[in-house]
Amino acid sequence: MTAKMDNKVALSILAAIVLLAIIFLIYTFGGGHTPASSVAGQYVQPAPSYAPQGQLVTGFPQSLVLDKDPSFSQSYSVSYSASLDQYTAIWNSSSSPTTLFNAYKNYFTENGWTITNQQTSAAVEGLYANNGSAVANAVFAAEGGGSQVTIGYASEAGQ
Questions:
Q1: What percent of the chain has a predicted confidence (pLDDT) above 70?
Q2: CA-wise closest residue to 66 among 30, 100, 89
Q3: Which whole-number Å values give the CA distances from 108 to 44, 55, 63, 114, 128, in the listed order?
Q4: Mind listing the pLDDT tens digit for each residue in 77-118?
Q5: Cα–Cα dist 137/86, whole Å
Q6: Phi, psi angle pair for 69, to nearest 5°
Q7: Is the pTM of this model over 0.85?
Q8: What one-character DSSP code corresponds to residue 20?
Q9: Are 135 and 25 spatial neighbours (Cβ–Cβ below 8 Å)?
Q10: Mean pLDDT for the chain overall
Q11: C-alpha–C-alpha distance, residues 119 and 98, integer Å
């Protein structure tokens, strides 16, 4: 495979992991809740609320950003219901996917999180962890000499 195909495969895997995490979050926390909005009984997907460029969205736990000086390319929140909020932060890191994977694995383990899934490949590495009513998905995709980091976090409101 060419490097360009490897990047396309890695980005496809990354997108699939993030999509599965969101579906899992909706399935896990969304059952029995009133949808964020409905029109004639149909569910209407809530719109993301974006942080200003370079900033972390309000509500995203700063403790989940392990880079010392990240420059956020995107950060947003989505409120699926009165009791379920999802937060996402994306930034580029000079660290390799493997270095980030190991740092987050240690962080989760040392801070009371349970790692429930992990994925490693040549171009993309990721972890899925939970801590009570909170869940986190950390994905590290090789990009240039470092990584693109995508961290998703969801919790029931008030938790």
A1: 70
A2: 100
A3: 34, 23, 11, 7, 10
A4: 998 888 889 999 999 999 999 999 999 999 999 999 999 999
A5: 11
A6: -140, 70
A7: no
A8: H
A9: yes
A10: 82
A11: 11
**H-only helix segments in the chain:** 3-30, 97-110
Reduced DSSP (H G I as helix, E B as strand, rest coil) percent helix, strand, coil of the chain, to 5: 30, 40, 30
Three-state DSSP state, 138 = strand
Measured in degrees and rounded to the nearest 5, phi and psi for residue 56 equal -90, 135
Token readout for 84 is 């379920």
Measured CA to CA in angstroms, residue 127 lies from 45, 94, 98, 104, 136 at distances of: 26, 19, 11, 8, 8
CA distances to 6, 19, 51, 110, 139 from 13, rounded to whole Å, are 10, 10, 26, 27, 10
Dihedral sign, CA of 24, 12, 62, 50? negative
User: Rounded distance, CA 19 to CA 87, Å?
Assistant: 14
C-alpha distances (whole Å) from 49 to each of 71, 75, 104, 125 are 18, 9, 26, 27
Q: What is the pLDDT of residues 108-146, one digit of tens each?
A: 999 999 999 999 998 899 999 999 989 999 999 999 889
Quote the pLDDT of residue 156.
80
